[in-house]
Amino acid sequence: MTLLTKAHMSQRRLIEILRVIESAGLPVGARAISETLRNRGYDLGERAVRYNLQILDELGFTKKRGYSGRVITSLGSRELTDALVDDRIGFVNTRIEEYMFKTSFDPLTGRGDVVANTSIIDKANADEVFDILDRAFEAGYTVSRNVLIKDEGDNISSRVIPAGSIGVATVCSITLDGMLLKKGIPVLTSFAGLAEVREKQPGEFIDLIAYAGSSLDPMKVFMGRRVSSAANAIFKGTGRVLANVREVPVSAAERASELLDDFQAAGFGGLIKIGGPAEPIMGCPVASGKIGIAFYAGVNGVVAAVEMGAKIETVPISMLVDYSRMSLLK
After folding, report:
1. E strand intervals along 42-187
2. What whole-number distance in Å separates Cα of residue 64 and Cα of residue 135?
3. Which distant-in-sequence residues (6+ apart) come within 8 Å of 278 by Cβ?
4. When comparing pLDDT for 9 and 298, which is higher?
5. CB of 193 closer than 8 Å to CB of 207
6. How far apart are CA 316 and CA 116, in angstroms?
7. Does 2 have pLDDT greater than 70?
8. Which superfamily does 89-330 belong to?
């Protein structure tokens, strides 16, 4: 039985609900699902979500966990893997474009919404993790020292922070893309990759995944593979860190450079290199008529903490945060 034939409901909506539940990693309720869907462009109210959840329960794709909400079943995970393959192609780029459009941060005023990665961290590891995040920024491998911290029982993105944990939102480099877009500069987030660092100097990418045509977040793929050595890069100056590349038109190169200066003057870091016209950047190809801008990923700090044994669950590009709510690491 396919999702499409059950109660004549939209397969796409049901798949999107499954995606939300799976990405949450924890039981999630109808209200949180509705809010997340709204951020993704689906205007589905809480009551409608509950109705769709009943269908998913009947199909065996989701299961209710008391009053906490739904979790996805193994059958639901298989359905999510098999269903709408063509529709999922390019899904990540679409999500990035939505966040870029909604970003409102202005580096000159230091106000507005930034794109954030979210992490659930064991409280027992919190002090150690914060120290690593601070050192990662000092070493230049993350975007910002500012974070948003939430306590157990609060919501972060669509997730309820479990007992014994805290939620931490860190600034994502896609904030830069949104800033460029708001200033009228067309920008394409083209590749995510694993970049070598030698004696504190950036080398070339040793692995790349294109965002275009991807049904999975490339950054999350690299994190899942555990192929980085960000901690070594931070503490020893040599390692492998996560980074990404965006492209802007050659005609906008000067204006983009000015905005990057504003971005850095506002206290942000992570810039690796600005390339020349159609010039490969760190071995990453760049289209004709474009320049490439390489940035370290905002998740490198938490990735390094995981490498050092901390218990952390991280979802890249997962929410917008009012920058005024974020504060310096202590």
Report:
1. 62-65, 69-72, 113-122, 146-150, 155-156, 159-160, 165-171
2. 41
3. 250, 286, 287, 288, 289, 290, 291
4. 298
5. yes
6. 7
7. no
8. mj0159-like (3.30.70.1360)
Phi, psi of 107 (to 5 degrees): -65, -25
The domain ranges of the chain are: 3-87, 89-330
Beta-bridge partners for 150: 167
pLDDT score of 10 more than 80: no
Q: Sorting pLDDT into bands at 50, 70 and 90, what band is 188? A: very high
Select the more confidently predicted residue: 90 or 148: 148
**pLDDT value of position 59:** 79
Q: Dig out the tokens for 184 from the structure.
A: 């009228």
Which amino acid type is present at position 130? F
Quickly name the fold that domain 3-87 has.
Arc Repressor Mutant, subunit A (1.10.10)
74-82 and 46-59 are packed helices; what angle lies between their axes, rounded to 10 degrees?
Answer: 100
Give 19 or 134, the one with higher predicted confidence.
134
